[in-house]
Write a structure and sequence with these properties.
It is found in: Cell inner membrane. By secondary structure, this protein is mainly α. Helices cover about 85% and strands about 0% of the residues.
């Protein structure tokens, strides 16, 4: 699409508000997904570490009791 000026670009033929609003909402949602994924990854990693520590403790208890 070819625009005569930057003002025409921002206005988008009268639909600029809706176009830029949709871009803004999309950007916010994508950033939210990135943050959520990052936090979820950290939660899963902590849970895995906790489970590994628990299994190690159970293994040490079984070895120590002679089972």
């Amino acid at each position: 699409m070819f625009f005569q000026s930057w003002n025409d670009f921002w206005n988008m033929g009268g639909y600029g508000f809706y176009v830029w609003l949709s871009y803004g909402i999309s950007l916010v949602v994508i950033l939210g997904l990135i943050v959520s994924s990052y936090k979820g990854k950290n939660t899963v990693l902590r849970e895995v570490q906790r489970e590994q520590a628990r299994e190690e403790r159970l293994k040490n208890i079984k070895v120590g009791s002679g089972l």
